[in-house]
Each structure stands twice: as structure tokens, then as C-alpha cells.
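Quick log. Single chain, no ligands specified.
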Amino acid sequence: MKQERENIIIGEYEAPCGRLMLGSYGEWLCLCDWQREKHRGPVDRRLRRVLNAEFMAGTSTVIKRASEQLDEYFAGARREFDIPLLFVGTDFQKKVWNELLTIPYGTTVSYGDMARNIDMPKAVRAVANANGANAISIFAPCHRVIGSDGTLTGYGGGLDTKEFLLRLENKSLFKF
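-> predicted structure:
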């Protein structure tokens, strides 16, 4: 048990739309990130620095549960997750990431909506940047955030993955 607290245990998850890296720190999920090199570097460095930990390949109870819940999500059988999340970032980023948890399955909001929801209506760009730094994709559903004109905007897993996830959640709503 002590070893899990000193390391970020990581394992891969093969989703129908790409490969995810899952990471647990103690009893929390701290990482569910798309395996795209451009996005991973800053996320990995932040986790190592803030948690003062190194990555170690393996598995944990949290990773197993997260994998099972992702299987159910991709099968259309799960709309909410109950994995304990550990957000690693600034207070502002954590505020934005917690706001992501309030976006219902099958719906979308704009970055402007999010900025207003956290009582910072002029912080649209900062909200967008915080979304881009989210290390816990799907569980903290940043894919549900779109441009104010309804278009798909940046996503760590790529716009094709974002479209896949939105279609999965609400096939009738999205007609890209």
C-alpha cells in the first residue's frame, strides 16, 4: 500500500476511439489521458512535480474499476462514474475541472457558458486553457465543451475522438 502512495501506477486502456493511459495515486484516479505525445508531456510533468512521484507500470484497484466503468460507458450502459478523482493543478484549474463534472451526459456547453457558471464571465480563454490541461478525460468530460457557435474545438484526443464521444452520448443531437 505504501508503494502506491509513492508512485503513480499507470496502465493502458484501449478505447474504441483510441488508447488511454490510466493512472492512480493512492485511492484516486489522477490520469485518464489520450496517448497523443503533444498533449501528454505537460500533463506527465505536472503530475510528477506536484505529486512528487514517478510513474510505475502496473495495475491497482482504481485502475481496474476505471477500466470496468469505461467498458460500460463505451457499451452505452454507463452515464455517470463513481471513481474518486484527484485533480492536480492550480486552484483555478480545479474549479474548471469540477465544473466539468456538472455537465450532464449527452449535453454540451460552451467555454463561455463555463466561464459564466464559475462566476468569471471574462475568463473564457483561461477556461479553455484549463480544459486543455485536464488530465482526467471522460471522467471529467471536457469533450462536452464546444465553441460558442456550436463547432467542435480542440481536444487532447483529437477532434475525431471528441466527435466520437459526443455521438456515443447522444446520437440524435449531433449531426456533424
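The longest strand covers residues 7-15.
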